[in-house]
Amino acid sequence: MSREKKQKQGKREKQESHRTRWFWVFVGPFLLGLVVFTYVPLGWSVYLSFFDAHNTVTPTEFVGLGNYTALLRDDAFTSSLWTFCLFTLFIVPTTYAASLALALMVNRLRRAQAFFRSVFFLPAACSYVVAALIWKMSLFNGVRFGLANTLLGYVDADQIAWLSTTDPPWYWLVIVTVRLWLQAGFYMILFLAGLQRISPTLYEAAAVDGARPGWQVFRHITFPQLRTTSVAVVLLLVINAFQAFDEFYNLLSDARGYPPYARPPLVYLYYLALGQGQNLGLGSAGAVLLALIVAVVTIGQARWFGLGRKEADA
Amino acid sequence: MSSRTGNSGLRDDGLVRAGRALRLALLVALALLFLVPFYLLVRNGLATEQEITSPDWTFFPTDLQWGNVTELFEDSSVPFARSLLNSALIAVATTLGTLVLASLAGYGLARIPYRHANKVFYAILGTLMVPAAVTFVPSFVLVSSLGWVSTLRGLIVPTLFSAFACFVFRQYFLGFPGELEDAARVDGLGYWRTYWRVVVPNSRPVFAAVGTIVFIGAWNSFLWPLVIGQDQNSWTVQVALSSFTTAQVVRLHELFVAAAVSILPLLLVFLLFQRWIVAGVERSGID
Q1: Under CATH, what is the fold of the domain B75-284?
Q2: Taking the CB of residue B241, how many other CB atoms lie within 10 A of it?
Q3: Chain A window 209-268: which residues touch B at a Cβ cutoff of 8 Å?
Q4: Considering the entire predicted model, what is its pTM?
């Protein structure tokens, strides 16, 4: 190798190590934090889940899969998983349809589009805690002064103890409407962005082909064009539904604790790990199970949608 | 023939107009429905306890009880002012910290060539799949072993590393015009100074968008502050509100006025930055 070439190579290597150093200056602090506060807890959680750890962060006795089998045999935990599944199966399609419908309506407005967009998006500024408070203490209060019961009173209907009856389970209506109110506007924004990306020439072409505006255009143009947005929205909805904690906790628990019904897994784990028993081993096992379920659902969904895309391309 | 199409065109016009009116009516009705909870919040916050619980429900309270606000701040059983201050400190610190850390990382990933940059990126992206709430047990264990329970540190530091924010910044910087940076290089600036003097000043909208989204998230977050804020002095506004709703004796007028006060800062941020929030959500690049 000639001297010149060697010099060139040396220069290139120096440049590369210079770049590498700066890459780590920029990315390093963030990545380190992520490792400490996400990867380490995750690993620790897996480790703790194999131990008996009451009231302590240092595991005492190795129990193998004992925590897992105990949890899966625990009716309270399995029923909370079931609760979550029901909740997800209901809230995901409902929010999806509601936010898509809002976006379609708002998108076709000629005037006041910004106004309606703001109004529907405004609940995103409310926390689940505040929303739960309004729902529990004013809208769906079990006594006469709640707005819903006042309205029922006008039509001489029976009053409903919204949050404290399990038969029929009126509390579902309360829980579902809180989440719809809080989330629909946010997803509407995503759909609006998607709608604005659709090329107008597609609609012109459809009109030339004689597609009637309305259902036909929606089915053959709008909906397929929203595919990527739809995939993202459904994924986010599922992950968010899985994390349901705030509104359940604030709507249903009171000074006496949490009623045994309508308990999502996170609420159950919260009481298990940080309640009186402080059973961190069992709590960690639950967290790992939950994470596994989320991963399976998310990956499964991505795969499923991915396969669909291939078919559409073919 | 032509007259027939003309007729049907007229009829269609009428139909279209009717359809538009119907849609507008539906939208107005829905908008009112969406505003009802806000109205209830204000109405109950400015009513007397009797008026909130009265079976003879009225649309407007007979006279507005502005005294509820002072009563809330004078009530010593709940440290509401303190919790507001905590929330403000946490939200501001989290926002600033996240913006610095995530934007640097996003820039590095997008603009500094490094052989394993993609692997690093996927390691960061992967944490988006881990629902944050699922790691709360081990995170609590970690923070408590650091002795950070009930401290602002414990409430802020673990939330600073948002993979979502990093992702948005990376996507944004990937599309950043290279000419500006090239000009800076010619002037002899290194990565560090190019970033601070050229890239950041030219990227204000994305900072505003991510900043407001992070701020809203930090202000509204509940589970983590609930887990970590174990004594009253470290409560955030959300935890304080929640303690109101789960308490045995509830002073409703105070509760509602507290909730109304708690969303004021966000409504302000919201009104000021709405355009950017919308742009940020759109850009969050969920696709």
Answers
A1: MetI-like fold (1.10.3720)
A2: 26
A3: 228-229, 231-233, 236, 239, 242-243, 245-246, 249-250, 253-255, 266
A4: 0.85
